[in-house]
Amino acid sequence: MAEELLIPVNADRKAVYNALFPQIKALIADESDLIANLSNITAALKEAFGFFWVGFYLVKEGQLVLGPFQGPIACTRIPFHKGVCGASYTRKETIVVPDVEAFPGHIACSSASKSEIVLPVFHRNGTVAMVLDVDSDELDDFSAADSEGLEQIIKLIERKL
Ligand code: SME
């Protein structure tokens, strides 16, 4: 396993995702432990993009429970019907929120979080295994480059579930 990530400087986000994808693929290729892989993925995303918060909420005990993350401490349990994470779980789709204050039911783990993107990660049988939540301290920070880039990374996780 490589010991450090190679991140292009002064590159746009799409270029960074393109550079990151094969490195994440290699990083998790020979490791079967889910928590170890999710941990490294959050670290890689945090390091590559400097996002305010990056983490997984795992489906456990009928709710979403905090898993590996990078960033400030966060809410530990989210009911399926609450917040952007709950909406992504329930609708089974990626949700981009340009302004969290305008999203009804948004859960503010930190007042510094201004926009976010949440993506579901699926088991082979189509049920949601977890969600990936990425928060930014800037308004309107996420675009198609993020949803496409993160969806590719999620596919790597899904193959190992
Ligand atoms: N904002 C999320 C909750 C998780 S934290 O932001 C880390 C939500 O509304 O689901």
Counting structural domains, the number is 1
Secondary-structure arrangement, i.e. CATH architecture: 2-Layer Sandwich
Helix content: 25-40%
Look at the helices and sheets and give the structural class: alpha+beta
From the spread of the alpha carbons, the general shape counts as: globular
Please report which band the strand proportion falls in: under 5%, 5-15%, 15-25%, 25-35%, 35-45% or over 45%. Answer: 15-25%
What is the tally of beta strands? 6
**Which compounds are bound in this model?**
methionine sulfoxide
Domain GAF: 38-157
Family: Belongs to the free Met sulfoxide reductase family.
Pfam family, one: GAF_2
GO molecular function: L-methionine-(R)-S-oxide reductase activity
Task: Characterize the structure shown.
The protein has 161 residues and is an alpha+beta fold. It has a single domain, classed as Beta-Lactamase. Helix content is 35%, strand content 24%. Helix 1 runs antiparallel to helix 2 and helix 1 packs parallel to helix 4. Methionine sulfoxide binds next to helix 3 and strand 6.
